[in-house]
Design a protein that fits this description.
Elements lengths: L2 E4 L2 E4 L2 H10 L3 E8 L2 E8 L10 H13 L5 H8 L3 H5 L5 E2 L2 H5 L3 H5 L2
Antiparallel strand pairs: 1-2, 1-5, 3-4
Length: about 110
C-alpha cells in the first residue's frame, strides 16, 4: 500500500476510498463523531472476512505497533510521525517513498520495544 503525506500525518493513499471499500465489505465499522470540537472517525474491526490474509510476521509487526502506541491519542501519533525524516523531507500531498522504510524510519524501535 502506498502512503502519502497529509497535514496530520502519513495515511494510505486514497484512504477515503480504501475505508469506504472496507466498510462496504463489513471488514471495518466507521463511526462519525467529534473529538475536541473537530469531526472525527472511529474505525473498528468489522467481521474480519480476510482472516489469515496476513503472514505470522505481519501480524507480529501489527501487534507490536498497536502495543507501542496503545497509550497515544491521535494528536500524539501525529506528533510522533512529524519527527520522522520521511515526514520532514516529503512535500505535503506527495507519496512517501518506501526507500525511507529500511534505512531511516524509527520502526525498529517500535517493533523491537
Amino acid at each position: 500500500m502506498q502512503y502519502a503525506r497529509i497535514n496530520y500525518g502519513p495515511v494510505p493513499e486514497k484512504f477515503d476510498t480504501l475505508y469506504e471499500s472496507l466498510h462496504s465489505l463489513e471488514a471495518i465499522i466507521v463511526d462519525d463523531t467529534t473529538y475536541h470540537g473537530y469531526p472525527a472517525k472511529i474505525i473498528k474491526v468489522g467481521r474480519a472476512p480476510y482472516a489469515g490474509a496476513l503472514s505470522a510476521k505481519e501480524v507480529e509487526i501489527a501487534e507490536s505497533v498497536r502495543e507501542y502506541f496503545k497509550d497515544y491519542n491521535a494528536s500524539a501519533i501525529a506528533e510522533y510521525s512529524h519527527k520522522e525524516i520521511a515526514w520532514l523531507e516529503v512535500p505535503n500531498g506527495s507519496r512517501i517513498s518506501y526507500d525511507y522504510s529500511d534505512a531511516i524510519l524509527d520502526a525498529d524501535k517500535i517493533v523491537n520495544a
